[in-house]
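Supplementary Methods. Inverse-folding protocol.

Structures were first reduced to a C-alpha cell string of length 148. This string, shown here, constituted the complete conditioning input.
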C-alpha cells in the first residue's frame, strides 16, 4: 500500500461512515484482522475486498486495490468514473493527495521565475501529474452533474 495515499481500505470505510467495530462485524471478521488490513500489516485478499466494496458502496476500491496490489495493475487506466457517492469522494481524496506534492514541486521550480534546463524534466513530470489530477476531478464533476 502506498504511504502517500494512506490506506485505501480505511479511507473507504471512513467514507462509508463506519467505525472499525461496525465494519468488522458486518464483514464477519475480527476487529484485529480489519485493523491489520488497514495498517498494511496483512494483505487483503480479493474476496475480502469484494465484501468491502459491497459494504462501503465503493466500486472504485476494487479498482484501486488491483492497481496497487496486482502485477496487472499497471495495465489499468488511471481514470475511472465514480459509480457511487463514495467513489466520488474517494476520487477527490486521491486528487488532493496527488496535487499537494505537485504544487510544492512547481513552486520550487518556479521560485526564480523560470524553468531551467536542469529543471525541465521535473517540470514536465509535474505537469503530467496535474493532468492526472485534472482527469480525477473531471470524473467527479461529470459524476456529480449526472446526479443533479
Amino acid at each position: 500500500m502506498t504511504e502517500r495515499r494512506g490506506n485505501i481500505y480505511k479511507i473507504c470505510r471512513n467514507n462509508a461512515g463506519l467505525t472499525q467495530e461496525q465494519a468488522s462485524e458486518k464483514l464477519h471478521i475480527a476487529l484485529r484482522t480489519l485493523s491489520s488490513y488497514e495498517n498494511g500489516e496483512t494483505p487483503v485478499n480479493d474476496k475480502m475486498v469484494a465484501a468491502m466494496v459491497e459494504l462501503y458502496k465503493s466500486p472504485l476500491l476494487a479498482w484501486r486495490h488491483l492497481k496497487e496490489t496486482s502485477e496487472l495493475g499497471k495495465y489499468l487506466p488511471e481514470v475511472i468514473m465514480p459509480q457511487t457517492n463514495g467513489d466520488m469522494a474517494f476520487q477527490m481524496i486521491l486528487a488532493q493527495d496527488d496535487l499537494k506534492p505537485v504544487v510544492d514541486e512547481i513552486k520550487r521550480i518556479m521560485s526564480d521565475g523560470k524553468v531551467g534546463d536542469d529543471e525541465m524534466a521535473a517540470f514536465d513530470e509535474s505537469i503530467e501529474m496535474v493532468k492526472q489530477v485534472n482527469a480525477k476531478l473531471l470524473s467527479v464533476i461529470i459524476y456529480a452533474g449526472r446526479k443533479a
